[in-house]
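Q: Please design a sequence for this.
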């Protein structure tokens, strides 16, 4: 495995699947976290995720500059697990970054990574059309990002009810 995109809905098991795949690879494990602890609930969620990963893992917080982090940290002997692209998209939107340019930069970084990279993302386009412009913009940006990363990833898995379905 060189690059793997793991897609799924909320609580589908995608992060657990990605972590299991990373740990099976052997070698060093680096978790690249895009979440920001902006409230107590998110602080608790992040703490639980850190505890679940255990001592084999190192963690790097990267809320915005994900392409640069992938290029800097990728190595044949280390697996990078990026969780998650959906939060990264919302971070970019709130920072008023150019979503198309950031998407292109991330796709280039994944394609050019010198070691294995696993990326987790929510599939947010399976529900109803959101009733407000910001939510529609977010859904569309997340969908375009998922398509761009799926195009360059060596493997794509869709997770539903904890079960993987290979898409690519």
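A: Design:
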């Amino acid at each position: 495995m060189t690059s793997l995109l793991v897609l799924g809905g909320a609580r589908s098991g995608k992060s657990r699947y990605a972590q299991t795949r990373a740990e099976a690879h052997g070698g060093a494990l680096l978790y690249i976290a895009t979440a920001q602890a902006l409230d107590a609930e998110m602080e608790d969620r992040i703490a639980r995720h850190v505890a679940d990963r255990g001592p084999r893992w190192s963690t790097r917080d990267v809320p915005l500059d994900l392409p640069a982090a992938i290029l800097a940290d990728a190595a044949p002997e280390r697996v990078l697990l990026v969780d998650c692209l959906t939060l990264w998209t919302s971070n970019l939107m709130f920072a008023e970054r150019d979503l198309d340019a950031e998407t292109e930069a991330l796709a280039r970084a994944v394609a050019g990574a010198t070691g294995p990279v696993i990326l987790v993302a929510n599939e947010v386009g399976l529900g109803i059309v959101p009733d407000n412009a910001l939510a529609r913009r977010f859904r569309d940006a997340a969908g375009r990002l998922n398509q761009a990363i799926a195009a360059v990833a060596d493997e794509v898995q869709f997770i539903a009810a904890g079960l993987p379905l290979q898409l690519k």
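Q: Thanks. Anything notable?
A: The chain has a mean pLDDT of 93. The two ends are 12 Å apart (CA to CA).
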